[in-house]
Amino acid sequence: MEKTRIAVLVSGGGTNLQALIDRSDVILNGEIVLVVSDRKAYATERAQKAGIEAQTLVKGKDFAENLLKLLKSRRIELIVLAGFLSILSGEILTEYRGKIINVHPSLIPKHCGKGFYGLKVHEDVLNCGDAVTGATVHMVNEVTDGGRILVQRSLEVYESDTPEALQKRVMERCEWKLLPKMTENEAKRIAYAKSGAKLCCESFEGLLASNSYPGRGVAIGKTPDGSSDVIVYFIMGRSFNSRNRAFVESDRGVDIVFLHPDKVEDASLVFYSPIVFEKGYAIVTNGDQTDTIADFVRDGDQTPFVNALLTRTYEPDNPNFTPRISGIIYPNGGVYGDFSLSMLKRNAFGESERDFYNFGFENGFGRFIHTYESDGNPLPTYDKEPHLVDVENDIDAYAEKLWNSLNPDNKVALAVCYIDVKTRNRKIVIKNKA
């Protein structure tokens, strides 16, 4: 398949450009063929050392016209802004709509917009006393930092932080990790569309059958006929306390009940409502953060999923430190797309690290995350992006197939929910081992 031709726009030292150059093992469906700077910058030297064409277009009256002409002459298909300080507007945004991404060093919508760049962002984070910050990769549109958010990652702010120290940590832990991945995702999307090939997905059934212990799993998607939004949630267990559970349908979604209440050892991490419907939102999680998110929805928070999870940490079940996995379907789409998934895990520094992935629905496909990479002691945390998996029209057949794919010795319960896109009526199929 022919690779997507990528241009990277820069204004300074080019550290994010270098992160892209260094991750050729990640960017498999795209090739950086052009680097453009709007001023004299070391980034162009980085490009030349990597054998990439570098051009400097000094800002002036004809800057936008000359930039567009250059991009077209090099047959550019995807534009990546990596520390680019000029604001794109006009014909470039029209010509490359949906094909320009930017990395911003904060958790948009915080500390963003006109005037927020470089150290100014981190100064504002510290001045506001934020406990958490991070980075965002988003689509570019006419509103500065206002395009659809693709992915975000958080990190903790230290009391000892200076703007310079915080900037360095956000770059190293967030920007340099997220930007190559999202560049590959968009390059792959464009490459497939260009070739006319259908998007490839993994077999959900096969993924489950090949893993004896994925732990707890969350998937959100859409049926092939487009008639229903789909939620899948399952739990597995090795201890009696984990296996002493079943799913039941409730007025607000799906709840967990104990099979033997008198034998419960510790209910704190195993008793919760995995699926909750609240004010048009559909929420699914592997813990009591379901209620945290629902509370933020009820309170009218404008970004309830992100803000709710910023208040939560990974589960304190040493030595596994189980990640909190969460998903949400939005009632009206918006800057986060149609639905989001989140992985809140313990990082190598012993801190809570949160990744937020945002998607638009695609008929016949879903996105799937789970807590553990495989069985083990301690259990190894799942540490990849959400899987792209298949979805089926028939809820009963789909639920049966997924249930039969889960390891028979470890599976505990499965819930599959189909939500009619027109009426928002829902059908839930539950499978319990006990």
Describe the structure concisely for a colleague:
By secondary structure, the chain is of the alpha+beta class. It contains 11 helices and 20 strands.
Question: What does the model show?
Answer:
The protein is an alpha+beta fold and 434 residues long. It folds into 2 domains: 4-195, Rossmann fold; 204-432, Inosine monophosphate cyclohydrolase-like (Glutamine Phosphoribosylpyrophosphate, subunit 1, domain 1), CATH 3.60.20.20. The protein is 25% helix and 30% strand. It contains 11 helices and 20 strands. The chain has helices at residues 15-22, 43-49, 63-73, 91-95, 119-127, 163-195, 204-209, 240-243, 289-298, 304-309, 395-405, and strands spanning 4-10, 30-37, 53-56, 78-81, 100-104, 132-139, 149-156, 217-222, 228-236, 245-250, 253-258, 275-278, 281-285, 324-329, 339-346, 352-359, 365-370, 387-390, 411-420, 426-432. The strands form 2 sheets. The protein has a 14-stranded mixed beta sheet, sandwiched between helices. Strands 18-17-8-9-19-20 form a 6-stranded antiparallel beta sheet, with helices on one face. Strand 4 (78-81), helix 4 (91-95) and strand 5 (100-104) form a beta-alpha-beta unit. The termini are far apart.
